[in-house]
């Protein structure tokens, strides 16, 4: 696993944006898996800045959604489709027709999950999947003890995750849906390159478990140890519990723009 330690969230966002821009330079219609939450926002902001300067061409890029709340209509301001429209599609000039996502309002959610996996495969698979990480090591909404071979499916959110997400719903946990559709761990691992971005001291324990801990369903993100091209980009705070932090700094220092990623 590649582990790149950066100074802060802005530096991490810029680094991942550069990696995406390089991918699109070689494959203009690449399918980028995008995530919601506060962690990836610096990536999208840095990508938009690259596009404005003519240093990234996103005109043919495609994006794929990682997860979605069940029961929220697509036009609800906190549906992930709406969030991604505001944070990704509109700022980057990516047309709606280049967006893939699961249907969280379908009458048959199981069928909708299976249909989304088929759609990803039909699109040629995800070229680069951007991930955040939960304080308990969840990726997407694959909570602890999720199957490491799981496919896109419906999941029940833990109270901890609902509390973490309440800030997006006026700090009212009662407004946070209880169920989501999420790409499974197995689905995520099919992406050609997986990039996990982690910032802040609250993520330090999860990052250490992901990188240095045992492979365990208790920490779903540890499954990235099995991936042939997984990169963890962590700021100093998120990397603070890594025993091998010094090794990672020596390995990736002085290689801008971090060709390894």
From TrEMBL:
Allosterically activated by N-acetylglucosamine 6-phosphate (GlcNAc6P). Pathway: Amino-sugar metabolism; N-acetylneuraminate degradation; D-fructose 6-phosphate from N-acetylneuraminate: step 5/5. It catalyses: alpha-D-glucosamine 6-phosphate + H2O = beta-D-fructose 6-phosphate + NH4(+). It is an enzyme of class 3 (hydrolase). InterPro entries: Glc/Gal-6P_isomerase, Glucosamine6P_isomerase, Glucosamine6P_isomerase_CS, NagB/RpiA_transferase-like. GO terms for cellular component: cytoplasm. Residues 11-225 form the Glucosamine/galactosamine-6-phosphate isomerase domain. GO terms for molecular function: glucosamine-6-phosphate deaminase activity; identical protein binding. GO terms for biological process: carbohydrate metabolic process; glucosamine catabolic process; N-acetylglucosamine catabolic process; N-acetylneuraminate catabolic process. Its EC number is 3.5.99.6. Belongs to the glucosamine/galactosamine-6-phosphate isomerase family. NagB subfamily. PANTHER family: GLUCOSAMINE-6-PHOSPHATE ISOMERASE. This is Glucosamine-6-phosphate deaminase. The lineage of its organism: Bacteria, Bacillati, Actinomycetota, Actinomycetes, Kitasatosporales.
């Amino acid at each position: 696993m590649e582990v790149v330690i950066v100074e802060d969230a802005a530096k991490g966002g810029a680094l991942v944006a550069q990696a995406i821009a390089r991918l699109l330079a070689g494959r203009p219609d690449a399918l980028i898996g995008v995530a919601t939450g506060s962690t990836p926002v610096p990536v999208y902001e840095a990508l938009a800045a690259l596009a404005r300067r003519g240093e990234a061409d996103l005109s043919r890029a495609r994006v794929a959604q990682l997860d979605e709340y069940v029961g929220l209509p697509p036009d609800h301001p906190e549906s992930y489709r709406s969030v991604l429209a505001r944070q990704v599609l509109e700022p980057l000039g990516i047309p709606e027709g280049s967006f893939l996502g699961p249907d969280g309002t379908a009458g048959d959610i199981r069928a909708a999950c299976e249909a989304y996996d088929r759609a990803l495969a039909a699109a040629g698979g995800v070229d680069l999947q951007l991930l955040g990480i939960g304080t308990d090591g969840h990726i997407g909404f694959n909570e602890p003890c999720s199957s490491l071979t799981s496919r896109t499916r419906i999941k029940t959110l833990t109270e901890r995750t609902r509390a973490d997400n309440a800030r997006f719903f006026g700090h009212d946990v009662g407004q946070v849906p209880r169920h989501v559709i999420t790409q499974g761990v197995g689905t995520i691992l099919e992406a050609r390159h997986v990039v996990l971005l982690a910032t802040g001291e609250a993520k330090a324990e999860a990052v250490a478990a992901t990188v240095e801990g045992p492979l365990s369903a208790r920490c779903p993100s540890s499954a990235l140890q099995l991936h042939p091209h997984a990169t963890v980009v962590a700021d100093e705070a998120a990397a603070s519990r890594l025993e091998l932090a010094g090794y990672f700094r020596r390995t990736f220092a002085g290689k801008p723009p971090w060709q390894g990623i």
